[in-house]
Amino acid sequence: MATARYDVSLLPILALGLSSSLWIVISDDTNHVFSPCADTKVQLSDGYTFGIVFASRNAFYNNGNTSGTQLSPCDSRLGLSGQSAQISVFRPKVDEISILTINTSSFSPDNVGGYMVAFGGRKYAARSLPAFVANGTYTVTSFTLVLEFQKGRLQNLYWKRDGCAKCGGPSGTGMVCLNNQDCAIRTPSCKNHGGNVDCSIGIQLAFSGTDKHYSALNSWYEVENLRQYSLFKLYSNLRDSLTSQYDSIFN
Length: 251
Fold this sequence. Notes:
The chain starts with a strand and ends with a helix. By secondary structure, it is mainly β. The protein has helices at residues 219-225, 231-250; strands spanning 3-7, 11-12, 50-55, 86-90, 97-102, 115-120, 126-127, 131-132, 138-140, 142-150, 153-160, 176-178, 182-186, 201-210, 216-217.
């Protein structure tokens, strides 16, 4: 199992068409499409660019009607550029388990609506359902996202719920179980709200389906087998260890 971490700063939603910051050289990467709002087909060795947008739940629906059609963030009819929405862009390697992180030290998801949608493509647009992240009371920091491909083209993005079996953490974090599916921290405990808890968002990413050569994408099954563990918790422990080492060197 290969595990990688990608940490990309949040950008204004107007940057959806950007590509200049995404010219990442990856060995054997044959996918030269770097915008999350462009269509492409991928194979096992490729990188794949997709985005995650933070906004209010109704901002992702046509005319703001949540009982209507959910549109892709790449669809201009949503008018996200005129709202306070924010976007984070990632380029993981196809069929590798990745741990994506979004630093919330200067960003509060509840201040921009509290929900997020993962997306990719334009003509063949795919998007996830809105996932709750934060409000003034609770903040969810750990997620699992599966990108499903068919013949190398992105078809769907799924948020997979781990339940609350692994809820827990340092004393004082005030962790609770929301709707029997998400572990959450009390928002006032987060550093971006004056508390002492790092509420950066961690997303375990995996793939399913087939690439453009009909090769099976199996990383989701690996995640399923590892669900008794928390990859993000393992990453967090490693990050904290490295941070403390650097602090001791430079302080």
